[in-house]
Every structure is written in C-alpha cells, then in structure tokens.
Amino acid sequence: MLAARLAGPRQPLSLQELPDPVAPAGGVVLRVLACGVCRSDWHVWCGVDPDVVWPITPGHEYCGEVVSVGAGVGRWSVGDRVIAPFILACGQCPDCAAGHQTICKSQVLPGFTCNGAFASHIAVAHADANLTALPEEMDPALAAALGCRTTTAWHALTGRAALKGGEWLVVYGAGGVGLSALLLGRALGARVAMVDVVPERLDYAGMLGAEVTIDARDGDPARAVREATGGGADVAIEALGIAETTVNALKSLRKLGRMVQVGMPAGAHCTMPIPMDAIYSGQLAVYGTRGMPAHRYPSLLSLIEGGHVDLTPLIARRVKLSEASAELAAFDTPGAPGVAVITEFTG
Asked: CA 101, CA 318: separation in Å to the nearest integer?
C-alpha cells in the first residue's frame, strides 16, 4: 500500500510503499476512501503530541470500505462502507459500558498511537464497538470531513453543553470545528456569533448563517459578544486551544452560561490563566470534550440524512496524498475557510 510517512517533527511527508496491513483480532482493514487533514494532524507534525512515536503515518478523519475482517468480528463484512471515530474504544471496559468511550483506558488513536489514514489502507481495531455504516448516498469526502471536527462539535453542543433552540452560541475560531459548530448550532435552532481574526473566514461564516461576526483584532471581542447578544452568549465553543481565545470565550458568557473547550491546548497553552472570578461570579460551567462516542453517530447522520443541515460547505479542497505536507504546513498561519480532504491515494 501507499502511505505518507512522517519521520520527525516538521519534516515533509514521504510517500512510501509499505506492506498491506493485516486485520487484527476484532478488527478490520479498510481501503481508505477519504481522509480529512485536521489541525490535530498539524499538532503531530509539529511534534507537540507526547503519544507519537516516529516514524508514523498521520490521519485520523477517515472512512473506507472493508477489505479484510479479523477473527471475532460479527457486525462487518467485506464490501461494507464505514466511518470510524478517531478514538477507537475497547467496547468492554466499565467506561465503554457506561457509554463513555472517549475516556476508555485502552483506546487506540490512529495517527497518534498507531499508524493512521494518510494511506491507501488502514487497520482498525475494535471494529464492532466503533464502526458505523456509511449512508449509501453520502459522499466519502463529506464523511471524512465530519472526522473529528464535526463529531467533536456535535458532542460538545449536544452531549456536553446541551444547547437549546433560541439560545445564543458564540464560537471562537472559524476553522473546521468552528464552522461545524456554526452549522450544527443553527440546525439546533440557536443564534450564532462567530469570532475570528481572518476576514475571509468571518465573511464565509456570515454566508453560512452566523448572525453576528466579530473580528477579534478590533478591540475587545468578549465585550462585543456581550453587546451583540444582549448580555452574553448562553454557550461558548473554544475551537483553537489558545489561552487568549479561552479567556475571551469565558468572558463572552452571560450568567449561568456554559463553555466547552474543544480546541486542544498544546505547548505553552497547556497551562492557561483562567479568570476564575468570572466563573465564580457568573456561576459558569466549563466542560472539556474530546471526540465523540461511536454510539452517537446515528443521531448526527440522521440529522444530515434528514436534510436538516448541509455540511458540504466544510469541504474547501479535495487533494492528493502527495499534497498532504502542504496542507499541514498551511496550519502555521490562519488560512482560507474550509477544510482539505484527501480523496486520491495513488500519489
């Protein structure tokens, strides 16, 4: 198979022919149909993720066709088209039994703790517990674009913050996660404000239905949010993992508001100066979230299949495997709206 390999931090990906993976017990091998390029892949590329052992094949936002089935798999057969969460839970521990697969102690993370889907094929562990059938009419590129960004946003809004229709949602960061939160929030009946520093991204968010767009370079964005929403947002999503936006997200909330930390803090941002006075006086709730349990895929896919939300605007570029290096490097600076999806795995 052909894979894009990363030998070390900030090195160009190298296309290599590797042996085809073998289906593990309880797992399957997929022919990758599409794989998103995510900011979390950029964290791997930068070398800030402590779980990564070099060399590695990145890529964790994928869908594919089953080409091989390991011993003990009961739900899947060769030819099935499936999608997987980026956290592959064991499905058997107490946390998994309670529906909390994202905190499974035996979890496997393709692209982080094992080889990922920047490749023509990928081995997927714990297939029965994690895979979900891909709707026949769904474009594989869209399924991959859901990846960790849309699924994480969905779980943040519905599983953590319990966003309600008519509430104000503010999103800090108009990248893949942020735009997903915008589209899903509107589908849930919320009014949405978007904060970013790239005018093109804010314009795009406005086109997608953001009622308020705020350029964080123009003064105090938290104050602007409070003024635009008549006292503050009910729910804030922080989608960058940066101290400045986390603090502003908290300060954007009205009393009894809820903030979800979706962006992954890394490097110097692992420890942040949080305004505890705002949390205390506002009686705010702060949630962390990471991924989405596999059992929540049907609710998201049903929303899409029912025509309640169109997520195709997320896809900005369909690229070749050989272009993955350039897409990773592009995360070094704020870029154009939309996400890149690898759809060609022949070079």
From this structure: 31
Would the pLDDT of 191 be above 90? yes
pLDDT of residue 143: 96
Q: What percent of the chain has pLDDT over 70?
A: 100
CB 18 within 8 A of CB 118: no
Assign residue 312 the CATH number of its domain.
3.90.180.10
Q: How far is CA 231 from CA 257, 260, 292, in A?
A: 11, 19, 31
For the chain, count helices (H), then strands (E): 11, 15
pLDDT of 117 reads 98
Q: How far is CA 11 from CA 61, 109, 172, 207, 304, in A?
A: 21, 21, 30, 36, 37
Q: How far apart are the C-alpha atoms of 169 and 166, rounded to whole Å?
A: 9
pLDDT of 347 higher than 90: no
Task: Determine contact, residues 232/240, Cβ cutoff 8 Å.
Answer: no
* Overall domain count for the chain: 2
Whether the CB-CB separation of 298 and 132 falls below 8 Å is answered with: yes
**Angle between helices 199-207 and 176-187 in degrees, nearest 10:** 20
pLDDT in tens, 235-284: 999 999 999 999 999 999 999 999 999 999 988 999 999 999 999 999 99
Strand partners, 65: 31, 81
Count the alpha carbons within 13 Å of 89 in the hemisphere toward its beta carbon: 24
The last residue of one of the domains, among 288, 309, 336, is 288
Q: Which amino acid appears at position 250 of this protein? A: L
Closest CA to 128 of 88, 86, 79: 88
User: In angstroms, rounded to a whole number, what is the distance separating the alpha carbons of residues 309 and 154?
Assistant: 12
**Overall average pLDDT of the 214-220 stretch:** 97
Identify the domain containing residue 108 by its residue range: 2-148+292-344
